[in-house]
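Design request, tokens follow.
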């Protein structure tokens, strides 16, 4: 699934309106129907819905939702932010339709005294501001948001929690953002949803299709994508029925040191479990018994050093090479790693202590073979690139780093982001909190 900036989504909206063709008010109705269907399945009509609507299209959606869902015997109250500027376009039409229906209590919020009391068993529909927001919320809106956030009721955000921006929130006032329990995002998730600091605002999010024109989506260029499980399954290589261990690749893992042999074991087991034909694990002498007993399928390559990595076997014998898990950062290991970078003609998988050594020696980055795969966690990535203020800045640094050094950067997290030398970034959809445990990164190195 392609991901777009909020500006690009607005352009795809316009393309749909022009080429379907469909009136803006009818596209708004289509989106509102999708959200009403979600509410019907997930929110009991025994609960009162308090709908907060702003002056823009997000508010127009909220007004349409109120009009549509009241027909299903929900008790609905609407509170419209009034900045004495009036409504225009589709939001104005939806306000008129709601008033003509005459089934919903509509009140205007002109000052703090107009903000209603919010009871614990009510459900709030947040339609104050959408993804087009370009500055932090303030004034009366800020007061409304804080009152909603201090309530204990369920909050459902339309498209994006009010106050949250679609990409960079570095200059935002994070105190003035709706903390939703559910976010019903329209057609595409917003890029800011993939950042850990925004979890408390977005919480559980779900993409609702609203029928934007496929051609408009196709012709709009984007550097960002969200990889869904079925898309990943479709690109996995098929194993030949006649394949054998000699045709399924021979991997070399350089891993382990005194006190860190567990990393070598985990990476080796994962590599074999992922389907490699043959595996050689290069380890210091102290690890010989450990690897032979723990991973009997692996062949052991023994380093001259008892405690650390100081040299490596002939690389031509291997189809892929991974280095880093449990490696340590001793001086002899650093020299051996530099030699590996210089001599390898194939892409490497680089993780853990190998990344930490790189961070200490940034000039070595130009020696890494093209299309090598670096698998840092956020701390390791920070040591590689320096200071960043938020996850959006980190994302741009990751993208630029991959392009500059012609490598693939797999930045591990809940939505692991994969940046390519071509400047593309793919977010993985299949992460889960169960993977937040020691050894997961070592296993990933082995799998790759």
């Amino acid at each position: 699934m392609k991901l777009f900036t909020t500006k690009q989504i607005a352009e795809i909206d316009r393309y749909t309106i022009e080429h379907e063709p469909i009136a803006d008010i009818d596209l708004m109705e289509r989106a509102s129907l999708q959200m009403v269907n979600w509410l019907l399945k997930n929110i009991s009509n025994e609960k009162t819905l308090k709908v907060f609507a702003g002056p823009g299209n997000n508010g127009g959606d909220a007004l349409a939702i109120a009009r549509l869902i009241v027909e299903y015997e929900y008790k609905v109250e609407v509170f419209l932010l009034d900045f004495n500027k009036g409504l225009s376009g589709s939001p104005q039409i939806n306000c008129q339709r709601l008033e003509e229906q005459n089934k919903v209590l509509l009140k205007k919020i002109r000052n703090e005294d107009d903000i209603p009391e919010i009871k614990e068993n009510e459900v709030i529909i947040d339609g104050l501001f959408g993804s087009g927001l370009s500055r932090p919320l303030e004034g009366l809106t800020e007061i409304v948001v804080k009152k909603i956030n201090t309530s204990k009721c369920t909050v459902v955000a339309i498209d994006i929690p009010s106050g949250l921006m679609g990409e960079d929130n570095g200059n935002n006032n994070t105190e003035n953002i709706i903390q939703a329990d559910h976010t019903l995002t329209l057609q595409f998730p917003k890029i800011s949803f993939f950042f850990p600091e925004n979890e408390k605002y977005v919480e559980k999010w779900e993409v609702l299709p609203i029928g934007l024109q496929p051609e408009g989506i196709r012709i709009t260029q984007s550097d960002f994508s969200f990889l869904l499980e079925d898309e990943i399954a479709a690109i996995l290589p098929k194993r030949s029925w006649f394949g054998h261990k000699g045709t399924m690749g021979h991997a070399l893992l350089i891993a382990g040191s005194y006190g860190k042999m567990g990393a070598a074991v985990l990476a080796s087991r994962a590599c074999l479990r992922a389907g490699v034909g043959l595996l050689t694990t290069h380890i210091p002498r102290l690890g010989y018994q450990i690897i032979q007993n723990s991973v009997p399928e692996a062949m052991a390559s023994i380093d001259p050093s008892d405690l650390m990595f100081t040299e490596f076997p002939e690389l031509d014998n291997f189809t892929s090479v991974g280095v880093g898990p449990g490696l340590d950062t001793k001086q002899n290991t650093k020299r051996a790693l530099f030699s590996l970078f210089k001599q390898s003609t194939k892409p490497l998988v680089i993780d853990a202590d190998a990344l930490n050594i790189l961070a200490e020696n940034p000039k070595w980055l130009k020696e890494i073979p093209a299309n090598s795969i670096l698998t840092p966690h956020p701390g390791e990535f920070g040591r590689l690139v320096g200071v960043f203020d938020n996850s959006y800045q980190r994302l741009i640094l990751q993208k630029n780093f991959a392009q500059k050094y012609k490598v693939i950067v797999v930045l591990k997290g809940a939505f692991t982001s994969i940046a390519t030398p071509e400047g593309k970034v793919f977010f993985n959809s299949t992460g889960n909190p169960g993977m937040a445990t020691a050894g997961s990164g070592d296993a990933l190195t082995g799998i790759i």
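Comment from the thread starter after seeing the answer: thanks! Residues 24-42 form the longest helix (19 residues).
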